[in-house]
Each structure stands twice: as structure tokens, then as C-alpha cells.
Request: fold
Amino acid sequence: MSWADLGLPDAPEPSGNETPAPRPRKEPKPPKEPKPPREPKEPKPPKTPKPPKPPRESGGQGDGEGGSRTPLILGIVAGVLLVAVVVTLGFALTRGSSTASPADTPSSDASTAAPTAQPSPSPSASSDAVGVPVALKFGGTGFTLVDKNAKTVFSYEWRDKAADAVTELTAAFGAAPTQRVEPGDGSSYPDYTVYQWEGFLLYDMVDGTGGAQRATFTQPSYATFSRNEVGPISMTAEHGLKIGSPVTAVRAAGPSQDVPRGNVGSIRFIFDQSRSSVGPPVQYSMIADTDGSTVTAVLYYFAAGG
Reply:
């Protein structure tokens, strides 16, 4: 299709020497006029505060809120505050001056301060308690285990049965005794069970032997020692005599009788012979055996003929 077919003139043929016409320059746009400044808006008038709602009157059971709770809450708060004040006041009063800090306490010179009265010690319940035995004391009616304050730990009389004494002496001496039977004469003198520790012997009659009865026999038991200490226990006789005391001291103690013994030079000294009796209670004399120069043994025995 050509321009002629369209009813249009033929387009001119461009020549090679023709220069295209320059494009027309666009006119610059005129500057926009500045917008006038906005006028400030008028401030809105302050809102008028709404009047407070009147307190709701307390209603009956059908009221949803159950009436105003404000008085109840205020009452509870006031009660709690009152309790807190009372507790605080009571605590402050009971503490007294103990809450004062060291800085608030006036210092005083220890040399000029008045001495503080010390409370007198109250008697202790243990002051009457009996301690462990330290000595075995002999007398006319028997022997006694005593503690360091001379309080009686255990006491034995000659007519007592020996079982308890053996138990107590075993504990005190720290060792059990050996045991044997010493036969009597078969007619009037009974057999004796002998409880023997190293340095101490306790003789206890076998009731009914030799026709003797413990309840009436003159010598139901007796004792002898040949050491001043048996284990941790000191042996304490009367008249201040000990094993090893010289014969001169024995004579000076005033014996009732002295009897020569089978060994050459040995002498038996009998003290308090007149107190030997069947009692009650049974009483014995004290006997000091010597080798002629010193005491070798002490016996508590029934010494007839005083």
C-alpha cells in the first residue's frame, strides 16, 4: 500500500544533504507561587468536667454490687494499721535498752566502773551425786567403798551375803577374783568360800556346813588384806596402820593384846578385842600381823576372850 492508495501525497524522498530541522526548545515553566501559610486553628475550648456520680445507695439482696464496699475496705485497713501499731509498740517496749547501738552506750573506764554483781551459784543437783570409789575403809561392823569426797558408794556388813560385795569389789578393783573353798573342821567351824584378789581376800561361810547357821554364827564372813592398794583402791584400816608400818607404831597405837606367832619373831597384835560380839550387828576386832619388824597383813576377825 502506498500513500496514494490512502489518498495522501507521497512522502517526499529525503535527500542525503538535508539536515533535519532542530527541535523547538521548550519554554521554561513559570515558578509556582508559594502557598500562603496556614492559619493556626483555634484551640478547642476545655471540656467541662462531668460532675461525680452520687454514691450508690446500699440496696437489698437484689442489688448486684451488694452496696458500697468502700466503708468495709476502709474499716479493714484501719484495723490492720491499728494491729500493726500495737505490735510495734509492744515490741519496742519489750526490747528496752537492748536495741541501743554500741555508739549510743556511754563508755566507761574499766578501772573505775562499779563491779557487776555476779549471781551466786545455785546448788547443783549433781552436788550430791556419788563418784567412783577410791578407797575401801574397814571398821568393826564391815567395810565401805567411798569416793574421793568420803561419800559411801557401797557398804557391806559381816552378816550380809557376799554376792553383792563381790560384784562391787570386782568393779572397783578392775579384776574378778579367783575362787576356792577353805574347809572347816566338820563339827563347829563351817567351810568358807574364799574370793581372792591380789592383796585382798573375802571369806564367806557356806551356810549349814559344820552345823553352823549364818543367822547365828559368830563369824559369818571376814576379810584380810596384805597390800595398801588393790588396783586403784586404797585400803584403809583403823588406828592409822598400814602394810609396812613398823612394830613400834603398832605398839604405840595401843593394842589390846599381842600374841607370838609360829614363825620366829612374828607377832599378832589384836585391837579392840572387847568389841567382838554377835551383835546385832556383828562386830569384829582389828588384827595386825607382823614379821617382828613391820606389819605384813591386817585382818578383821572375831577375836574371842576380850
